[in-house]
Each structure stands twice: as structure tokens, then as C-alpha cells.
Amino acid sequence: MQLLSRGILYDNDSVKFFILRSNDYRLSSAMSKSALVILAQGAEEMETVITVDMLRRGGVSVTLAGLDGDSSVLCSRQVTLVPDKSLADALAAQPQYDAVILPGGLEGSERLSKSNIVGSLLKEHESSGKIVAAICAAPTAFVAHGVAIGKRVTSYPTTKDKITSDYTYIEGERVVVDGNIVTSRGPGTAYWFGLKLIEMLCGEEKSAQVEKGMIIVGY
């Protein structure tokens, strides 16, 4: 069997004319966006799972990477999550992603703030114009690593005092976007955080499609 031009497959018995849908799928898959979500001990599980779930619904290739390895991770409300792979393995397989995302949780955010690998990763992606996102307490990791300086950001209300004067702090918005920097307030805003990331990675139509399917607003 041979592939001829304009979607024609030819074999010795017949000539078949049709649209090569599988080829179209491979092309779209090859162009799909990628996101790295970093999971640290003490992460807020709703923010982690909702974000990963929604991005995957939007067609984004998401890697949930364990900060300290590929073993199961105990989160802030005693829910255990299992990463897809370690952060080291995720970066070895793909050094750069279209988005790097930090879930919140006080302990998890502190661990992200103390990680030199996370700091380097955030800086590299920010300078490359890739999306750098954090929710709840995780924007404090931006402060710790000197990322998103001068940008508009938000966070969980009780961490406001940890966001220094190097940033413009925003209240009253579920999600704040400033260029390639995306921040959000907490577990209850995780759905809008996910939708905004889908919009930025895949377009408004895809974001609206995911929202409709999940009945976030249109109930």
C-alpha cells in the first residue's frame, strides 16, 4: 500500500479516496502544548488535581512531576498523590515545557521556595516567554527565587504579607495574568485557574468547551 497525494491510499486491489483523519490527529498531537506541574510534599491536593485534570481535558500534555522523586506524595489534607515521574526525569525527557505550574499548600510552597532546581526552572521558562503559573501560597516561591519581578500577582490572602514590594499585589480577582505570569488565589479558584491556562495554551474556544463540559458556570 502506498500513500499518494491529497489523502489517497493506493493498493493493488483498489484506490480509496478519503480524508486521512489519523494523519490529522498525529499532526495535532505533535503540536499539542505541554505543561509541567511540580508536586511537593504538603501540596494542596485540590489545586494539584483540578489543574492537571482540566489541562488534560483541554488536550494539554501534562506531566505531574515529584519534586523529591517518583514516590507517592502526602498532600496537605492527608491525600496521597502519585506523580507521573520525578522532576529530574521529567526535565531529562523534556528540558522545557509550554507552562510550568506550581500548586499551593503552605508546606508544599515552602519546599518549592527552597529548591534551587525549581528556581532555575522558573527563571529559564520566564525568560523564554513560557507560561509560569502558581496558585494559593505558591506565588511565594516566585518571591524566593526572584521570578516575575515587577508583575501583577495574587495569592492566598494570608500570604499577602510575603509578597514583597517588588510586585503589584492584586485582590478581588480569581486569576491574575501579567504577560506570561499567571497566579490565582486558592482551592476555590482552581477551576478558573485551569480555564485561564487552557485559554492561554489552547485558545478561548477550547477553554469554553472544557467549561461547558464541566458545568463550572453554565448550570
Automatic annotation (TrEMBL):
It comes from the Eukaryota. One of its GO terms (cellular component) is mitochondrion. GO terms for biological process: glycolate biosynthetic process; glyoxal metabolic process; regulation of phosphatidylinositol 3-kinase/protein kinase B signal transduction; response to oxidative stress. InterPro entries: Class_I_gatase-like, DJ-1, DJ-1/PfpI, Prot/Nucl_acid_deglycase. Residues 33-199 form the DJ-1/PfpI domain. Keywords: Cytoplasm, Oxidation. This is (African queen) hypothetical protein.
